[in-house]
Every structure is written in C-alpha cells, then in structure tokens.
Amino acid sequence: MTSTTTYTYDANGDVISNNIDTNSDGTKIPSPKKEKVKKLGFGLSTLVALSVIPISVVTMPLVLNQPAQALCIASPDFNGIWHSDDGGTYYVRQIGNEIWWLGMSADDGRTWTNVYKGTRIGDTVIGQWADVPRGGIRSGGILNLSVPPGWNGSVPEFSRNYVTGGFGGSKWFQSCNDVILNPI
What we know:
By secondary structure, the protein is mainly β. Helix content is 5%, strand content 39%. It is built from 1 helix and 11 strands. The radius of gyration is 26 Å and the shape is elongated.
C-alpha cells in the first residue's frame, strides 16, 4: 500500500497543513489548503514525502525560493507620518514647497519635541528647527535635508545633510505595512 503525504510549511518552518493527496487505491483526495498557498504566492515550499510503510517518517529541510521583501511605494511628497533613526515620530506636512513638522521622542515627546519649517528646492530642503516646551530639551538651529536624486518628485526617504544645535535625527523613513508580510 503506497500513499503520498504533502507537508506545507510556513516561513518559521512550522507545518501548516498535512494533506494526503491519494488514497491507497489511487483515488485523489482534494487539498484545498495547498491550493490556497499556491494562489497567494507566499513563496512557501511544499515538500513531499513518499513512504512505502505508512509508519516511516521522512525529515526534510525547509527550502525557500527567495527571501521575502516588502514592496513599498515612495510617498508622492513629504506629507505623512515619518520615523527617524533617533527613535522619534515626525508628523510632516508639505504645502507647496514649504515643509512643516512636529517631531516627538518615543516617550510621547516628554524627552524632546521639536518643530521644523523648511523650503524644498529640488532634492534639498533648507530650514530651521526648534525644541518646544512639551519636551525637556531646549535647542534649535539650522537643519537641511536631502531626498535621494532621481525620484521624480516622490520621497522614498530623506536624510539630513547639514545641522546645527545638536539635532539628533539623521534619516527618516515611512513604515511599510505590506499586507502579506504584516497582515492586519
């Protein structure tokens, strides 16, 4: 008596389905979980273990075709919520060529809260920043930003290229909530 058992694994190597595809008499048994995984295209590997004796166990390593990567689309402008390598969250508004923001430390702005006003000229933003009393730090100065060139006006990320007054952040990015990698 011969049977085919299909094991489907998730990205952590855990079995998410164990379906017998054929009966001992050769009749096919439907496998809806396996079809669903194929249609969604998660890149999960399906491993097949053939056994002559139904008790035998075959151990096979998880094989991934390629690493999963989120596909984020660059923001059309600076508008939105940005995060920085200083751990802060920045609420940014672009009105024409003017860039405004409220930046807050991860502790809801108790360590530092700052405001910014700059003017975008191509791939550069020239502006000034200042801490405000919500946080405990009091400083301010010049902060010039750069957008990677060649993005046709969109903003995939930005970074500082000149700063005075001890401003901490140097790179800003938006979270990528890819629905396959970060399901709701």
